[in-house]
Amino acid sequence: MTGTPDARTSPVQSVDRAVTVLEVLAELGEGGVTEIAQRLEVHKSTAFRLVTALEARGLVEQVGDRGKYRLGMAVVRLAGAVTDQLDVTRRSRAACEELAATTGETVNIALADGDAALNVDQVRGASSVVTHNWIGERTPLHATSSGKVLMAFCAPVRAAGTAGRLRRYTDATTTRRRDLEEQLDKIAVDGFATTTEELEVGLNAVAAPVRGADGEVLAALSVSGPSYRLTADRLCEITPAVVAAADRASAALGWRA
Predict the structure, then answer these.
(1) Other beta carbons within 10 Å of 190
(2) How far is CA 230 from the centre of its chain?
(3) Residue 18, SS3?
(4) E strand or H helix at 147, and its extent?
(5) DSSP string computed for 213-238
(6) pTM for the complete prediction?
(7) Which domains does the chain have, with CATH numbers?
(8) Residues in the chain where the model's pLDDT stays below 70
């Protein structure tokens, strides 16, 4: 980190740093000026100016009087505007709401985002007591039902998801590439994927592909919930409903089987 404030900073560099501040807070949840300055490798006064400018636009807000900052509600509005523009999100909403009502569990729509699955929409069912909001979160392809669906039906996503070391999140996470490849081949035949406590202990899920008008898989539609409720038997029981909902979402996007 530099020892003196930046004398001259280009507008482009300032924008880049401001975006980095948002990314840092998204990663940390909340952080102070000193912490942000260290992550940006800039003087504290520079970090403070950036945070103050972002706060003035509602993109950042202070957490009480603890000297900490977090993302502001303006970020939520911007994210919502982007989500609303996604055809797959708008057109699959009815299918997601119906599935959430039928199963009582949380329904998510995820898109491929490099080597991760990006959750872009969520509907909570009546049985869901979890307050976790998955929207905007990137989850590992190899440890989630949505990620495995995206890999199984899209070669570039499969290549991205199997390129590096497969990180272990729980004892149930698939970390051997050969095992993962075998799973993906089976998913491509079965038309759905299930995961039992592979990303988090106590979290199970099942997902199916959502296709565009040309038949290409655009997204994954999933149902997730606590393992004590979404047992192996329950996952098998709701899988046909998940596949049917994904097919309805695909039909809304113009796909015809």
Answers:
(1) 13
(2) 21
(3) helix
(4) helix 145-153
(5) TTS-EEEEEEEEEETTTS-HHHHHHH
(6) 0.69
(7) 11-76 (1.10.10.10), 86-252 (3.30.450.40)
(8) 1-10, 65-66, 80-86, 128-132
